[in-house]
Amino acid sequence: MTAPKFNDVNVGDQIPELKLPAINRTTLALYCGASGDHNPIHIDIDFARKARMPDVFAHGMLSAAYLGRLMTNWVPQSQLRSYSVRFTGITQLGHVPTCTGTITEKFEANGEKLVRVAIRCGNQYGEEKLVGEAVVALA
């Protein structure tokens, strides 16, 4: 991976988007096993319906992981200085997560050249599911 250089990026630039396959029951089961999060709202349709949901839905942290992958597809993990997200919607079965990022600030701190990136995970309908920001060091 060749990380971008500080002088080659500008405020307003988009980082390469990450589009994932549609969320399905297999994705949710695999994430349960990988994360250890076996909350039945994500895998048991009867439980979900008792909670007044139409069906199971994706873990919020799955979308947070997708946003993490967005960033580490752009720069090595060692260049990530901060990462934060806020959940804003539920990712239902059949939703196609798409993660995007926009550079919002360039600055220097502690001897490093840094960029702040506004990150977002939405679906194929343009509905926002997570928002956040990351700060990365660039050479």
From TrEMBL:
<feature type="domain" description="MaoC-like">
    <location>
        <begin position="23"/>
        <end position="103"/>
    </location>
</feature>
<protein>
    <submittedName>
        <fullName>MaoC family dehydratase</fullName>
    </submittedName>
</protein>
<dbReference type="InterPro" id="IPR003965">
    <property type="entry name" value="Fatty_acid_synthase"/>
</dbReference>
<dbReference type="InterPro" id="IPR002539">
    <property type="entry name" value="MaoC-like_dom"/>
</dbReference>
<dbReference type="Pfam" id="PF01575">
    <property type="entry name" value="MaoC_dehydratas"/>
</dbReference>
<dbReference type="InterPro" id="IPR029069">
    <property type="entry name" value="HotDog_dom_sf"/>
</dbReference>
